[in-house]
Amino acid sequence: MDRNSNVYTFIYASVMVILVAAILSFAAFNLKPYQAKNVEIEKKQNILASVNIAATAVDAEQIYSEKIVNSYIVNSKGEKVDGDAFTVDLKKERAKQVEDRQLPVFECNIDGNIKYILPLYGAGLWGPIWGYISVDNDMNTIYGATFDHQGETPGLGAEIATKPFQAQFAGKTIFDNNGEFYSIIVAKSNETAPEEHKVDAISGGTITSKGLQKMVMDDLGAYKSFFNQKK
Length: 231
What we know:
Layout: H1 6-49, H2 60-67, E1 68-74, E2 80-81, H3 90-94, E3 103-110, E4 113-123, E5 128-135, E6 142-149, H4 163-167, E7 185-187, E8 198-200, H5 206-221, H6 224-230
Parallel strand pairs: 7-8
Antiparallel strand pairs: 1-2, 1-3, 3-4, 4-5, 5-6
Helix pairs in contact: 1-2
């Protein structure tokens, strides 16, 4: 066949495309278990971070197995239901009505005291945001928090993933003095809110801040019956 012909060029290009596609498919298939394991380890690191425990990719699984003493799913009535809390898809659950959601709970032993870790999922300015909040066994006081995002603006909305922002949540309460669920207000400089429920919003990241506030309100609010039963 004439190597300068259009037919040769077309056949050569087609063979190369098929070959490269086959190699990429083979690589993706074989790497999938490793990718899934990395996602699992990162999730365990984030759960531990919500109770202020630092873990690396090397030691996260060991620390998780030592510190997370229980995990289960509850419904909006606070009742335990069947299922694996670790594998719940928060994005899918968030699309359901509250009464139909599976709500994961992770219990962590910190110096003999149980902290309850609850996952969150919401929307920022440019995409999804998520995180974990831990509460003390009074089911009211926040012990720690960690948040992350898919594509918020560096230096602005992306600040939700920084330690200084997350540290504000420790010690805040989610119920008011009358025992009513209040949640957390992510307040701008010109906004007022009770100090026990208030954290400072990110300067220049108003939409992300308010998205995070709504995420905390909606997702922690789904656990109200669970909180009340545990009190």
